[in-house]
């Protein structure tokens, strides 16, 4: 077994585990089994202070459901990575399947940012603040360094998949040049 | 494709076998088969030259244009 096969098998296993672990960690954090690390939320500058320890179980459930929206995209990304490394482990490196999976990974990275900015951040900030002052809730969203870097990485991954697809076409033509 | 490769016709005319020609022009039988079946996307001038040399013909005998 070559080095690339071994490493790919390890990554395949890692991403399989992450598909299960990632939502489990999010659920554990919202239900107090794991502490929420400081600075975990990008909207830490809400006009009111949210004490995560005092959140009602119903609010925690809602917040968890909201965060699962972006978690589903991340899990999809792990699923594609898992499939990609399975192909690498089977010595399928420059096939059309690889290109399609790499492109899908790029799209999920971009979608993750869009869903976070458009839906998760506003909904999460509203969910966490709606009961802080009766009758008032705050909606906050923003594009930070994480979002910009994820967006850039997503775009670069999509671009690389296009380049690889062109490379594959050239390789196919080369193979049929006698 | 509208370019027809008449290697099999020339092989029959020269009473030569495919494997024999493949050996002479330095390509494997699989590639010669791709050429004969019209699946090739391109043909190198060096391959064409070798084909002409060993089949004792000119490029026009091997390549033919047919309107689709």
What's the topology here?
The complex is a heterodimer of chains A (178) and B (68).
Chain A: H1 3-30, H2 57-89, H3 96-129, H4 145-175
Chain B: E1 3-5, H1 7-14, H2 18-25, H3 29-36, H4 45-55, H5 59-62, E2 63-65
Antiparallel strand pairs in B: 1-2
Helix pairs in contact in B: 2-3
Main sheet of chain B, how many strands, which sense, barrel? 2 strands, antiparallel
Reported for the largest beta sheet of chain A, the result is:
none
User: How much helix is in the residues of chain A?
Assistant: over 70%
Q: Unreliable stretches of chain A, pLDDT < 50, 5 or more residues?
A: none
Question: Segments of chain B where pLDDT lies below 50 for 5+ residues?
Answer: none
Form type of chain B: globular
| Secondary-structure class of chain B | mainly alpha
Main sheet strand line-up of chain B = 1-2
Find the structural class of chain A using helix and strand composition: mainly alpha
Question: What does the model show?
Answer:
The complex is a heterodimer of chains A (178) and B (68). Chain A contains 4 helices and no strands. Chain A is mostly helical and 178 residues long. In chain A, α1 runs antiparallel to α2, α2 runs antiparallel to α3 and α3 runs antiparallel to α4. The longest helix of chain A has 34 residues. Chain A starts with a helix and ends with a helix. Chain B has 68 residues and is mainly alpha-helical. Chain B starts with a strand and ends with a strand. The mean pLDDT of chain B is 89. In chain B, α2 crosses α3. Chain B is globular and about 35 Å long. In chain B, strands 1-2 form a two-stranded antiparallel sheet. Chains A and B meet through loops of A and α3 of B.
């Amino acid at each position: 077994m070559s080095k690339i096969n071994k490493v790919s098998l390890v990554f395949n296993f890692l991403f399989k585990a992450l598909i299960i672990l990632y939502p489990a960690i999010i659920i554990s954090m919202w239900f107090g089994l794991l502490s929420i690390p400081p600075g975990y939320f990008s909207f830490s500058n809400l006009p009111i202070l949210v004490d995560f320890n005092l959140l009602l179980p119903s609010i925690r459930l809602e917040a968890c459901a909201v965060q699962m929206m972006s978690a589903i995209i991340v899990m999809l990304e792990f699923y594609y990575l898992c499939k990609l490394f399975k192909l690498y482990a089977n010595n399928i490196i420059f096939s059309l399947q690889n290109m399609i999976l790499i492109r899908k990974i790029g799209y999920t990275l971009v979608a993750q940012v869009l869903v976070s900015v458009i839906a998760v951040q506003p909904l999460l900030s509203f969910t966490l603040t709606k009961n802080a002052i009766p009758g008032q809730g705050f909606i906050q969203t923003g594009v930070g360094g994480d979002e910009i870097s994820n967006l850039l990485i997503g775009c670069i991954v999509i671009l690389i998949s296009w380049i690889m697809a062109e490379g594959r076409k050239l390789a196919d033509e080369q193979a049929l040049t006698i | 494709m509208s370019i027809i490769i008449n290697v099999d016709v020339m092989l029959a005319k020269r009473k030569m076998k495919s494997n024999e020609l493949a050996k002479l022009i330095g390509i494997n039988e699989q590639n010669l088969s791709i050429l004969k079946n019209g699946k090739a996307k391109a043909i190198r001038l060096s391959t064409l030259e070798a084909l002409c040399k060993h089949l004792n013909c000119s490029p026009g005998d091997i390549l033919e244009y047919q309107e689709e």
